[in-house]
Specification:
The complex is a heterodimer. Chain A is mainly alpha-helical. Helix content of chain A is 73%, strand content 0%. Chain A has two domains: 94 residues, Rna Polymerase Sigma Factor, Chain: A (Orthogonal Bundle); 86 residues, Arc Repressor Mutant, subunit A (Orthogonal Bundle). About 10% of the residues of chain A have low confidence. In chain B, a hairpin with a 5-residue loop joins β11 and β12. Classes of the chains: A mainly alpha, B alpha+beta.
Chain lengths: 182, 332
């Protein structure tokens, strides 16, 4: 990310900020979609994160940290959107639960469908650390910084999220296998 | 290649492929462009105001107001925060997740106090002494006494935190990540219908209105057998619910606090690691005191390298009871 662009945006240059949005918007949106798994919510989260970035840019101490800071804002915005959604929908189910599909006979490991079903069951907070580490490629320490948590928290979240995914997928595969052989 | 490697590889492929490459829609970019002229930038901050602002991780959309900003702060904090009792290199060496410019006093109490727990950085070793929490999040002031060897944490900026953990230091167990053993104060805002399934939603808000209602709500989780008994702490009565794990592992979240902190249950079925929640009716609200009153190493300690020990926390249980016995809840 060009430092000069960030500095211009920090001083109120809307055109510079628009260029920054062009360079980082797609990536932020990709992260939001993977965390929220809802296009509309992801768009809202990305928009709110970018507006928060604009509003608070003058407070950014190090322009070179703009990108990491923006990811932090979008993760926060995702969590806020998820919370708003919870409140609006109350005790209604937020996401459909798909029936297990046929396993991939060519593979003994998880299919995309199995991972998808398991991933949906994770909380937004746990999805976030998985996305940050296994999609963006951050280290757990970097993910912790992005989420604003201690490193141990991020490591713990990641550990349990992956454990949950494995366990859920194994259970799913067992059910699928039983159905397939019944 | 191991099964684990294959799994991670498959997971990463799944994440890469998820819905393909989709650029940020033009409508969103246009909406941002349209908003900029009407969105005033805040001025640069210095000193304490900078710390607070950065700790708050910058406010959410204005339309959600300050409460939403607080939500943003806390909701990002890891549910396993309570696993942190004692971290690698010692708690006092652990940097705050916030910028390093902490304005907080760091001097250890040298007199009996009481000291405000918030007159400290966000996390660290807690010198033995008398402490109190007197903040709007809680319905009354809470005083308590902590012996040596304990560690504290709250997950967000001091002004809005509604979870405060006092955990035994894990250095003696050899756990690198922390202990996850101790107690915490909290406020319940939303109770999960199913701790194992975030998609199941939240219970009706009425369940948070009294200790009885919360105890009943926590007793409805099919996969988490619960026992309920009467309890009195700090002069206030309520219900104490002990939740144990069923036979199936899941990543279980019990509730969210008003600032959005996600409160997880102990995450293992292989060890006797129940969660106890004391719900106290205090001045028209419900104060929660969470404890891990069991002797064995916690799942998190074992994850952190501690050897399983069914009596690892026997001595700590005595101290935990002492802390609970020292609690005084004073109406404002």
């Amino acid at each position: 990310m060009e430092r000069r662009l960030v500095e211009r945006a920090m001083h109120g240059d809307e055109e510079a900020f628009d260029l920054l949005v062009g360079r980082i918007g797609d990536s932020l949106y990709s992260v939001a979609r993977r965390i929220l798994r809802d296009t509309t919510l992801a768009q809202d989260a990305t928009q709110q994160a970018l507006l928060a970035a604009w509003r608070n840019l003058p407070q950014l101490r190090d322009p070179d940290r703009f990108e990491a800071w923006a990811y932090r804002l979008v993760v926060n915005a995702c969590h806020a959107e998820a919370r708003r959604e919870r409140r609006q929908r109350g005790n209604l189910r937020l996401l459909p639960h798909d029936e297990p599909m046929s396993p991939d006979p060519a593979s003994s490991i998880a299919t995309n469908d199995q991972i998808d079903r398991a991933f949906r069951k994770l909380s937004v907070e746990h999805r976030s650390v998985v996305v940050l580490v296994h999609y963006l490629g951050l280290t757990p320490a970097e993910a912790a910084e992005t989420m604003g948590t201690p490193a141990g928290t991020a490591r713990s979240r990641l550990h349990y999220a992956l454990q949950h995914l494995r366990t859920t997928i194994e259970a799913d595969a067992g059910v699928t296998h039983q159905r397939g052989t019944a | 290649m191991t099964h684990k490697d294959e799994f991670i590889e498959r997971l990463e492929t799944y994440l890469d492929d998820y819905e393909g490459v989709t650029p940020l829609p033009d409508a969103v970019r246009d909406a941002i462009r349209a908003e900029l002229p009407h969105t005033k930038q805040t001025g640069p901050l210095t000193g304490r105001s900078r710390f607070l602002s950065m700790t708050l991780q910058l406010p959410a959309p204005a339309r959600y107001g300050l409460v939403a900003a607080a939500v943003l702060v806390a909701v990002v904090i890891g549910a396993s925060i309570f696993s942190r009792g004692g971290s690698v290199g010692g708690p006092s060496a652990s940097p705050s997740p916030s910028p390093s410019a902490s304005p907080s006093p760091t001097a250890a109490p040298t007199s009996p106090g009481p000291w405000s727990l918030l007159d400290s950085p966000q996390e660290g070793t807690l010198p033995a002494g008398d402490y109190y929490l007197d903040i709007p999040a809680y319905p009354a002031r809470i005083d308590f006494t902590v012996p040596e060897g304990w560690w504290y944490f709250w997950p967000t900026t001091r002004e809005v935190a509604d979870v405060h953990a006092i955990l035994v230091d894990s250095l003696d167990t050899g756990a690198a990540n922390g202990s996850a053993w101790g107690l915490s104060f909290a406020i319940v805002d939303e109770v999960r219908v199913d701790p194992c399934d975030s998609a199941a939603g939240i219970m009706d808000p009425s369940v948070t209105q009294s200790a009885d209602a919360l105890a009943t709500a926590f007793g409805t989780w099919a996969d988490f057998p619960a026992t309920v008994e009467d309890v009195t702490i700090g002069g206030y009565s309520g219900k104490r619910v002990e939740v144990t794990r069923g036979e199936t592992f899941c990543l279980a979240t019990a509730f969210y606090t008003p600032t959005g902190y996600q409160f997880d249950l102990q995450a293992s079925t292989e060890l006797p690691a129940p969660d106890q929640f004391s719900f106290l009716d205090v001045e028209g609200a419900v104060l929660v005191i969470w404890t891990t009153d069991f002797p064995a190493t916690t799942p998190f300690e074992e994850d952190g390298g501690a050897s399983p020990d069914p009596e690892a926390h026997v001595a700590d249980q005595v101290e935990l009871h002492d802390i609970l016995g020292s609690i005084v809840i004073e109406p404002r």
